[in-house]
Amino acid sequence: MSQSSRISPLGVGDIYRAAFQSGLLAENAKSFLVHDLSWMKSRINEFQDAFPKAKHALAIKANPLVKVLRVAVECGFGLEAASIEEVALATAAGCPANRIVFDSPAKTHQEIEETLRRGVVLNIDNLTELARVESILGTSHPAAPIGLRINTEVGAGRISQTSVAGTGSKFGVSISRERHEIVAAFSRNPWLNAIHTHVGSQGCGLHLLVDAIAKVEQLRLEVQAATRRAIPNVNIGGGLPAAYLQGDTPPTPREYADALRSRVPSLFRPDVTLFTEFGRAIQANSGAAFSRIESVRPLGNGEQLVVIHLGADLLLRPVYRSDDWKHEFLCLDPSGDVIVDDVEPTTIAGPLCFAGDILGRGVPLPRPREGDWIAICDTGAYTLSMWSRHCNRAIPAVLGYDEGSVTMLRNAETPQDIVRMWS
Hints:
22% strand, elongated, 12 helices, eight-stranded parallel barrel, alpha/beta
């Protein structure tokens, strides 16, 4: 398997069999999730090879499982936190403070004080937050980099809800309207020694990513000229898309790095330290979700309806924004063999009590039978981390798969766990 490929149908079947053979699943398990840790490690390696001198931080929000985060830290990655709670997750995963990057558009005074005291890398989101940091630091100079997030205003990608570099974005300081304030901030604060940008996640093409970083690099050089001091740290965020369907050909990490070297060669000078915050591009294709088919019935239009045990609780975006977010599905028999015969259009419905809990309509699948299993591909990012409590379904077991070895990453919840949560 090449590092940039998705897990093959045969590989999905192997993972399913290994999960049941491990003895870690309950006999009556009706659904479970698997994270292929060997695939994730190879993907991390691919980014390290493409950006060999960068300080990489895996985005926690993509997949917050502590045991998954710990693997990334052991591979040399830091962790990017979008909340103070994610800072705690990073700490629990064994990440040193100086490899934790704290990004959030709503940092409190107390959260800023705590992370500065601990030596966490901080990216200031806006001018109001900048004033808070100034009041806390005064003339002191923390060891960890402190950056200012810039909205480069290069425009939105294909998916507006996950694009953050359009005019009027809630993130960052405007590169056009507030350019004077940006330069002034670096001029009066010698501890401000990093610049940060991010354009979005999925739906943002390579040209958008490169355009944004080219604009922020031009700004950095302008700031250095105005302040007569080095701004050595540049955080280029994440945003590299992942493949979800056959035919998807997102840029590889190497192609992204080569495009940046061609367009913005000054970023790769020895006096510049690059930071990255990739999440989806590392995690998405390393995960698969499995559910038993609980019932099958005809819809009367030549299409079958199958009801499974995973729906909008796990796949919020594919259910609520189905035009933008799609997954591929496989049908497995109980032994784990992928079924390929008698393909017909199928509606896949989740278990939640609302009519819109539909994962796919007209999905070409083999004639489904009760007791067969549906595998949902590429669920390693922004699925479990977005779990919905609507109807209070329990989170299923999450297993780790590492070259045939299976471990428990998170035990399945029980009804008693749900009662405790709401009590």
